[in-house]
TrEMBL record:
Gene3D superfamilies assigned: FAD/NAD(P)-binding domain
Alphabetical list of NCBIfam families matching this protein: GG-red-SF (TIGR02032)
A molecular-function term among this protein's GO annotations: FAD binding
Annotated protein name in UniProt: Monooxygenase, FAD-binding
Species annotation: Paenarthrobacter aurescens (strain TC1)
Source species, domain of life: Bacteria
Length: 447
């Protein structure tokens, strides 16, 4: 079996590593060259750290990785520090690592296993057979400055994995557009030289106080990178009435202007520009499997509506896809196994992903809808922040750090909640085949 992966981010490189390690012929096409910057909070929860451990990816402090103890939450004049929970299936620490280094580490890890990674190959469309089956991808070759050279290359494969992020040209070229029945978020961030760079906690602001004292929409974060800088950013959901109407970069400026001067979050200390990106949540692009094609990570909208976390789900989806492909590859070597049999087997990937996170994402959609209402959010914070045991439960719920087999009270409550809601569907309604109007609002305010 020959596999082509579009995108060498966390999803693409993770899948490439597992496939190459299993002896599968795998090629990855990456439109940029490493090291490359990506808009992200740079924070990795224990769920993402677990995937890093499974990959065997080194993450020593001496190599630019910084461990953290848990979450520090700030709201309503209160601050509460919540260590990462002790759950059998997850480590008890998180990590901070800039995407500049993290993505390259993953790509080189995949190469070390035998994957071919071709940088500066920008995929423009999927290639299909007469029956519509995806059989490869067409890419424009770019020069070192990122400009098209005029050369195009066609790559053929038995299966293509679309791991090319929110704007996935692979899926869009097949008519698979974003769904308007799913949450969408926008995040903006920048870096500041700051004495807070070595903070041991991932800090989340559940309310954003502006310079005037009037609360700003969205939620914010301050993550110490450990290299002399802090990653400071904010996110806003489309359930907020302000979504698409604001200059989010200006909102970030107003928020940081109201912070203590000794933190150094000032224009003079800013490192690089403020950059933004869309957060595709709750399976907002489907179907996740069609003949010859699987969607991974952000390309399939696999970002949690609870907390905007996408890296862990990108890496998990990649591991799941690789497992199905490795199994299909071994079976195809046996007599009598047809392309139809392989398609039937690989189609189970979509159902498997839905079974893993569908109910969690459904709860996340309800959560996103509720916190978009200021009165509800204010009441929830007033009720929850003074009660540490309640907030610990909330953190486990938001970060999806539960043990399905455990009999503890928190695990049982979360299981009951997820059983009470239907799993978010990852099949494709008619609306998924038409462009969504919010795209322009997102690009206009984050560009």
């Amino acid at each position: 079996m020959k596999v082509l992966i579009v995108g060498a981010g966390p999803a693409g490189s993770t899948a490439a590593y597992y496939l190459a390690q299993a002896g599968v012929d795998v090629t990855v096409l990456e439109k940029t060259s490493f090291p490359r910057e990506k808009v992200c909070g740079d924070g990795l929860t224990p769920r993402a750290v677990r995937e890093i451990q499974k990959l065997g990816l080194p993450h020593a402090v001496s190599e630019g990785w910084r461990r953290n103890k848990g979450l520090r939450l700030i709201a309503g004049g209160r601050t509460i520090e919540l260590p990462w929970p002790e759950v059998a299936d997850f480590p008890t620490y998180g990590l901070i690592r800039t995407r500049l280094g993290f993505d390259e580490d993953l790509a080189r890890h995949a190469q070390s296993a035998g994957a071919v990674v071709l940088e500066r190959h920008s995929v423009t469309s999927a290639l299909t057979a007469d029956d519509g089956r995806v059989i490869g991808a067409r890419a424009s070759v770019l020069d070192e400055s990122g400009r098209k050279t005029g050369e195009t290359r066609d790559f053929h494969a038995d299966v293509v994995l679309a791991a090319d992020g929110n704007s996935t040209r692979t899926a869009v070229s097949l008519g698979m557009h974003k769904r308007d029945d799913r949450p969408l978020g926008v995040a903006v961030r920048t870096y500041f030289t700051s004495p807070r760079h070595d903070d041991d906690w991932m800090e989340g602001w559940l309310e954003l106080p502006g310079k005037s004292g009037k609360p700003l929409p969205g939620y914010g974060w301050v993550f110490g990178v450990g290299d002399g800088t802090s990653n400071v950013g904010l996110g806003i959901l489309n359930s907020s009435k302000e979504f698409g109407k604001l200059d989010y970069k200006q909102v970030l400026r107003e928020w940081t202007a109201g912070m203590p001067a000794e933190w150094g979050f000032t224009p003079e200390n800013q490192v690089g520009e403020i950059r933004g990106a869309a957060l595709p949540m709750g399976f907002n692009r489907t179907p996740h499997y069609s003949p010859g094609l699987l969607l991974l990570g952000d390309a399939g909208g696999m970002v949690s509506p609870f907390n905007g976390e996408g890296i862990s789900y990108a890496m998990e989806s990649a591991r799941f896809a690789a497992e199905f492909l490795i199994d299909a590859s071994s079976r195809s070597a046996s007599a009598g196994w047809s392309t139809h049999d392989a398609d039937a087997h690989l189609s189970r990937y979509a159902d498997y992903v839905r079974d893993q996170w569908g109910s969690h994402f459904t709860l996340g959609r309800l959560f996103a809808s509720l916190i978009g209402k200021p009165a509800v959010m204010k009441l929830a914070l007033r009720t929850g922040m003074p009660i540490p045991v309640l907030m610990r439960f909330v953190v486990r719920m938001l970060a999806n750090l539960t043990d399905p087999s455990a009999k503890g009270f928190e695990d049982r409550v979360i299981r009951v909640l997820e059983m009470l809601v239907p799993a978010t569907s990852n099949t494709s309604p008619a609306s998924a085949l038409t462009p969504v109007g919010t795209d322009s609002a997102v690009s206009a305010t984050t560009s």
